[in-house]
Amino acid sequence: MGITAQQFEQMKSRLGRGTRAPRAVMEACLQPPRSRHQVIVGIDPSLRGTGYGVMRLGKPQPRVLAQGTIRCPASWERSRCLARITQTLRDVLKQHRPTVCVIEALFYAQNLQTALLLGEARGASLVAAAEAGLDIYEIAPRKVKQAIVGYGAAQKLAVAKMVQRLLALDEPPASDAADALALALTFAQEQGRYSLSPLKRV
Amino acid sequence: MGITAQQFEQMKSRLGRGTRAPRAVMEACLQPPRSRHQVIVGIDPSLRGTGYGVMRLGKPQPRVLAQGTIRCPASWERSRCLARITQTLRDVLKQHRPTVCVIEALFYAQNLQTALLLGEARGASLVAAAEAGLDIYEIAPRKVKQAIVGYGAAQKLAVAKMVQRLLALDEPPASDAADALALALTFAQEQGRYSLSPLKRV
Description:
homodimer, alpha/beta, Nucleotidyltransferase, domain 5, 47% helix
């Protein structure tokens, strides 16, 4: 797991003890790279149930500003679902003003048709984020599970429960929203440390 | 090949000769179903070169209102390409006001990754069309080639040359735009006749 804001503070106070380094220099050294993103949106696209979660970094833990699932009934035509996804995300981004978007990198699809449909939902999501001027990164699901649960093949429920704990929520978020918040949390950890394998921009 | 507007007129005049059916009844019988779409946009999506073509039905042949390829350099991030696709199509739709959009149905992709990227470009295109309130249909490439060239496995150049001829253009359109115009032409033919296999709405 990477460094949470809390761990970062603890580390700073530990390093601060007994050193003679001028405070400003120490701060600069400890400053995490790419630390400018304070409000992060995670998106887990799918045609009938796109999950999203927006959080603001802070102490003692990040605060959830919005989370939910964009549901589209099976009776709706595909294009109507796609328009709904873009429109809903556009509204969420406008209201909460994240500066960075994190989306799941595809690792698997049952067949070409599934990949195509997933791609359409991703396209609709990315258009909303790109038109809002956000930086966009993708992270593989395995990396998210590794970061959140510590185990790359973790079950969905384990992710949801850990997201609940890390964000001090009253109850575990619904599966799609939990995955989206997990993406945002993983990004927060990644941007809080120096990494040899930087995240992929899309 | 289906029925062009010209062939439809010829058929009408042939049937008109020597019959005693009141003109109104004959017109009603000959009236093609779903004939309300006069301005049609065809879209052939891809991440780096989305083709589009808008045409208005008329005599002696449909008139091309706009055609082109939305180019995105290989150096651009994917999300930037997707935003460009949506934005350009949005402008084209706003300017020429088609009422129906025809898009290529996927039939083949080399692998999941290709299908995903193609899906993203389709998603970005469909969002523009759906938000503009268009009816959206998809047609398989094989059906387009069959309708335009009379041969389901026709080469790209053969399609472009036939599109040039059917639309009385000075030169064959570039490959992506030709495919988009071929989609629009195929739709025009389909809506001009009774069909046992109606087009698929998406």
